[in-house]
Amino acid sequence: MVLIRQEGFHMYKEKIDAYIDSKKDELLNDLMTLVRIDSQKGESSEGKPFGEGPARVLQEAEKLLQTYGLYVKNYNNYVVTGDLFEGEKGLDVLAHLDVVPASKDWTVTQPFEPKIVDGRIYGRGTADDKGPAVALLYAIRAIKELGIPMKKSVRIVLGSDEECGSGDLAYYYSIEKEAPYTFTPDADFPVINIEKGRLEASFHASFADGLKLPGIVSLASGDKANVVPQRAGMVIGGLEKTALAACADKVTAETGVAFTLREVTEEILTSQIEENMNAEYVRDTMDEAKKDCDSAVFFFVEARGQAAHASTPQEGKNALTAMLRLAATLPLAESEGLQAVRALAELFPYEDTCGKTLGIYREDEESGAVTLCFSILRCTAHGLSGVFDARLPVGCTEENTKVPVREKLAARGICMDDNQMVKPHCVPGDSDFVKTLLGSYERYTGIKGEPLSTGGGTYVHALERGVAFGCMVPEVDNHMHGDDEFMVIEQLVLSAKIFADAIIKICNELA
Question: For 488, phi and psi rounded to 5 degrees?
Fold first, then answer.
């Protein structure tokens, strides 16, 4: 391969732009193929480490890589890779094809039925991260089919477990070495060189005294640590509906989270109460309580907020913390369980998304401030378990973050597990790598770019020379992790061009 010279850059730019523009419909069709696959993490089985959906989407992606002439390898359905050519690598580009769960509240289309409306493509994964993955593929396809000279090769790495711990990359990097440079299009332009640290902390408590009426039979919310919970459910017994409704209206006025109240019937148990609340337990507990108080009435209370990524909890409406506020203000019988619920409502108040109440707030000029999302809770009359997700700027340590939270929870009878804290990640903003990426962004947008920080952890967090580069822009809310997720089509096309430009420069100038 021949090193391309700086004075020849303008020649390939026109060709790449024209090529990618001509392939827009193909790009969208390929993206739709991937979006139609429900690639949420499922039960592991032989040959399918993260379940049926993630394995199937990798296999479909493998077909695309082969179709476009890349040198393809499937790493046992953990990741699939495609090399531009066989030879020394100069760059890895990482994207993931697994997705977070989708609610039933989509309005434009169903999550796995992609639809184009007003210049946007809707569907789960269009923004995170199937759309950016396809943009990467088309950048590499353009370089290959146009015969752009390259000194070193580029490898696209498509994974299947980014949303649930990145076990896919742990497997991949147990076999392969980190490339000289790596970027992932799983965040914002212009380039993110600093990622906050993370404490995904789990905790639990047990209650000896059981259910007392009026009291909480069950409370459940959330299923992913990195998502602001949009829904929460609670079964409560022994209260008048008017009193319950009055308290719910007050919390709605304070938070904007809406509540619905329905008397628990067999139909509600089988069709409305979510499986994670354990309908069988609820039924048995209500039956037992009615032996002592046959006049007791039980209500199913549902909270509906707004989902958001856990790294930006202020952009959502947390149904869990709103439900805790409601539960803590109700006139219930004193019990160990109620004391624990009140403690959680006190330590994780609805308005506090930066850890001030827990005593862990701090801020760094480059990496920003702490953010906090209480994302999962399961609570019965016999115990509770929960998870919160804190994103941590430079300067946060176990001593000033993990330890004080554990102590505050322990003082209220709640035990925090010994979860590992992930340290912040930084690639110098003045490095040639970051400057090259910024140059490609500036060339196509005409906007001066500066390196940014994020609270979101991406695929490159554990890589010494890895940054996030695109595909989003801060001024557009793509509803990532929320209902009606979308990607602006022209942004995808533009991103493919920027990626191609950056790949050529890195694999030649920095090779």
Answer: -70, 125
What separation in angstroms does the CA of 235 have from each of 221, 259, 489? Answer: 12, 13, 44
Sequence-ordered list of residues with C-beta below 8 angstroms from that of 301, at least 6 positions apart, any chain: 233, 234, 235, 236, 244, 248, 259, 260, 261, 323, 326
Please choose, from the candidates 214, 413, 207, the residue with its C-alpha nearest in 3D space to the C-alpha of residue 330.
214
Contact indicator for 337, 216 with CB cutoff of 8 Å:
yes
SS3 state at 120: strand
Q: How far apart are CA 468 and CA 461, in angstroms?
A: 9
412: buried, middle or exposed (CB in 10 Å: 19+, 13-18, 0-12)?
A: middle
Angstrom distances, CA of residue 329 to CA of 218, 247, 318, 360:
16, 7, 17, 26
Q: What is the pLDDT of residues 130-163, one digit of tens each?
A: 999 999 999 999 999 999 999 999 999 999 999 9
- pLDDT band at residue 465 under the 50/70/90 scheme: very high
The β-bridge partners of 197 are 392
Helices and strands in the chain, H and E counts: 13, 27
Mean pLDDT for 210-229 is 93
Q: In the prediction, which pLDDT does 296 show?
A: 87
Q: What is the pLDDT of residues 59-74, one digit of tens each?
A: 999 999 999 999 999 9
Which amino acid appears at position 252 of this protein?
T
Distances (CA, A) of 511 to 92, 146, 147, 149, 507: 13, 20, 18, 13, 5
222 pLDDT higher than 90: yes
Nearest Cα neighbor of 259 from 270, 250, 268, 267 is 250
Residues 154-178, mean pLDDT to the nearest whole number:
96
Instruction: Give Dmax (Cα) for the chain.
Output: 86
CA distance 337 to 99: 34
For residue 266, pLDDT beyond 90: no
Element (H, E) at 133: helix 130-146
**Which secondary-structure segment (H or E) carries 200?**
strand 197-206
Q: Are strands 89-96 and 153-159 parallel, antiparallel or unpaired?
A: parallel
Residue 327's region, left for phi above 0, alpha for psi from -120 to 50, else beta, is: alpha
Contact call for residues 483 and 307 (beta carbons, < 8 A): yes
Residue type, 210: G
Helix (H) or strand (E) holding 142: helix 130-146
φ, ψ of residue 437 in degrees (nearest 5): -60, -45
